[in-house]
Amino acid sequence: MTRLTNLSQPRSSSGRPSWRSSRLPRSSRWRRPLGLAGVLRLLRVGGLAGLALGVTVGCGPLDALTNATGSTDSRTPEPRSTAQRGDTSLRKLTSATDTPKPTPTRTPTPTPTVTLTPLPRPTSTYPAPKLPPPPKDEAPELERIKYKLETVVWASAGEVDQKGTRSSCSKSENDIIALGTYKFTCDVKLDDVQTRFAITATVKRSEVNWGWSAAKLPVAEKKAVYEATRQAFRPARVTCDVTDLEAVEVGTRTGLTCWVTDVYNENVTYHGKLLPNGALAFQPDGS
User: Fold this and answer.
1) What's the DSSP call for residue 138?
2) What is the pLDDT of residues 157-207, one digit of tens each?
3) Buried (b) or exposed (e) across 217-227, using 16+ Cβ within 10 A?
């Protein structure tokens, strides 16, 4: 850099100082920052040593670079302590890597072999017997009550024997003429099996309302076998504890018993329930 000075300079003949130029020593010259271009030039010329020197000279110590404004952008980010979305749960990871347990092998149940010939199975309930015609409307009230009770016995037994059926009541027709409520009994005998009915009758001016109940009703053997065969599972042989015609308790699950041998030669006990209308309902033992 060239500077002008008039110190200790000889004057011209006109008395004015004679100006001349002088150069300052190289060591006292002002150094201009190298800048990015200078750093690159040093890098090409002097390699890494030149780069370090250029950075030190032009930009100051390296500490100043790290402490300058905005230096936090170049810092290594600290690890975050909170779990981020997509983390794998330790519990899920553990359960996912568990060794699967072996599935137990099931031994197939052998199919039973049919060894007996099945019985023909009825598709409908035991046929109702054909009933004789009822008494005429002008017949005495007690006669019509007796006829109704006889139909109950015939339906339960599964057969009609009009000649072998006899009925009697503890009240006469004259005893139930007056208005009022009466309680009495009637007996219906079919062959050698007698059924007793408890009767409650209410006599009104224009009608008579009455009802009955019975502890037992007769059931024929052929009807019991028929119903057990129809309701049992693939029967081959059926026997029941009813012989010919017997009185069976009404409404009891164990009213009668039948033993069934199925086509696989397995023996199953069935219990029959007699309903008030004479129907039979069978269920296997233990059900």
Assistant:
1) T
2) 999 999 999 999 999 999 998 999 999 999 999 999 999 999 999 999 888
3) bbbbbbbbbbb
